Amino acid sequence: MVDEELKRGFARDMVLMKLVGLHPIVVHGGGPQIGSLLERLGKESRFVEGMRVTDAETMDVVEMVLGGLVNKEIVSMINSHGGRAIGLTGKDGPLIQAHKLTLTRRREALDAPEIIDLGHVGEVTSVDRSVLDFLTKGAFIPVIAPIGVGVDGASYNINADLVAGKVAEVVQAEKLIMLTNIAGLMDKQGRLLTGLSTTEVEKLMSDGTISGGMLPKMDSIIDAVNAGVSRAHIIDGRIPHAVLLELFTDSGIGTLIERR
């Protein structure tokens, strides 16, 4: 989503899906854009196990970038190609209820697990399906920024893959599609894997074949598929019209994961 032509193609694909009777819901991130603005403000980005440490000042930047810049850019692109997109954060509705994420890490030198404070980093408590049903039945395409709200009104920065999985689970989506900058899941020999069950994916995670930044995606996919989402796909968003190629061709282009 940093290439202008790919972004325009993605927007056209969402409009086409809606026109043919499908109901796309878009969940986006914005890590590079957040990092860029923080750098310009002279604030260092810190990560723990792939998650951005989000103090109050950083949370302000996250809300500005995700809820403003990135969200409205995607909405504008879809609308300019004939769609009817509505931009949301989890605070609208309120759509996404969240609470503070507690991260613990074991160290050999310590008897008890170390508790790491990530600040305003959250995890999803619940998603209000009625908000999404209202929009999709009204011919709109929801575009969701992964910001949740706590019972006390506090804002939380949530991993976009986690939000996508929870949204798919709540609406019982036919498909959960994750766009990445790789071809899909690879085995240790670099060959593309597809047609996997959630059990097979868990084994690949256990033996180290799947690691690093792909782990949160896999956790989200496993939870969603086990909760009733029919199929999940990991596809290469650098390929023009990747979503349509995955949906409407026999072979697809990425990794398919399903429960069986």
Q: Approximately what portion of the residues adopt beta-strand conformation?
A: 15-25%
Summed over residues and divided by their number, the pLDDT gives a mean of 90
Output the structural class: alpha/beta
- Give me the count of strands: 15
List the total number of helices. 8
Would you list the SSEs in sequence order as H and E? HEHEEHEEEEEHEEEHEEHHEHE
Helix content: 25-40%
Radius of gyration: 18 Å
Could you characterize the architecture of this molecule?
By secondary structure, the chain is α/β, with parallel strands linked by helices. The chain has 8 helices and 15 strands. It has 2 domains: 1-171, 3-Layer(aba) Sandwich (Carbamate kinase); 172-260, Acetylglutamate kinase-like (Carbamate kinase). The protein has helices at residues 4-19, 31-40, 56-80, 129-137, 160-171, 198-206, 214-226, 242-248, and strands spanning 26-27, 47-48, 51-52, 85-89, 96-100, 103-105, 114-116, 122-127, 141-145, 147-149, 155-157, 175-180, 196-197, 231-236, 255-258. The strands form 6 sheets. The chain has a 4-stranded mixed sheet, sandwiched between helices. Helix 2 crosses helix 3 (56-80). The chain is globular and about 50 Å long.
